[in-house]
């Protein structure tokens, strides 16, 4: 009997060959790996900065808290003339000192207290009556202080207080109707200031401001010196401050 040799392979055996299967399936696997890698690249950077940002915020909050400061400065006093009740009152210009305490709770919210001192002459009716006085003012104001911009910190304050005129003995020149010794006079005042802080170091800085005072023209309780008017004083001030 003649034997029969099977030289042809069955059709389904080629499709089941391992090498052919590996060449058909790598595309879905590669796409899956690319998607997973892309997700890791996108999501991982988000996780690290969020944690770092929370840590950084917790560390920087105490540092950005506003602190109180104490300042000392010198000013030049200029007071306008007063006319009223047939009386003209003039003053001489002078220098003075200003001590301030400031406590900003946060930007645009705080308070300040000031004590200023100077002395100058009051001249009534062109020197018919003339007296030199020690002038001290104490004020308390609401402080609006902004964050620092380009190295400068603008501020504005408005408030009130009292100003005290204490005549210096031996400096009074007067007519017959004016006593040779005048009493001390205390007057209410309205105050305001506008200026800039320039922080040089973490605690130390420079301060420049224009301070204004509004109050009744002093008459030292003498009817013959009463102009019945208000007058203004300007005090350009330059000083330093130390922040605690």
Overview of this protein structure:
The structure is a single chain. The chain is of the alpha+beta class and 244 residues long. It has two domains: 25-63; 66-243, Porin. It has helices at 11-15, 18-24, 26-64, and strands at 69-79, 82-84, 87-91, 94-106, 109-124, 129-145, 153-167, 185-199, 204-216, 230-243. The protein has an eight-stranded antiparallel barrel. β8 and β9 (204-216) form a beta hairpin. The longest helix has 39 residues, at 26-64. Residues 6-24 and 46-64 have low confidence and may be disordered.
Provide the descriptors you would attach to this structure in a database record:
244 residues; single chain; 50% strand; Porin; 2 domains; 8-stranded antiparallel beta barrel; alpha+beta; 21% helix
> What count of domains describes the coordinates?
2
How many β-strand runs? Answer: 10
Amino-to-carboxy terminus distance: 117 Å
Mean pLDDT metric: 82
Helices and strands: which structural class? alpha+beta
Share of helix among residues? 10-25%
Order of helices and strands: HHHEEEEEEEEEE
Question: Beta-strand percentage?
Answer: over 45%
- Which spans of ≥5 residues are poorly predicted at pLDDT below 50? 6-24, 46-64
> What radius of gyration results from the CA coordinates?
41 Å
Globally, the shape reads elongated
What composes the largest sheet? 8 strands, antiparallel, barrel
CATH fold assignment of the largest domain: Porin
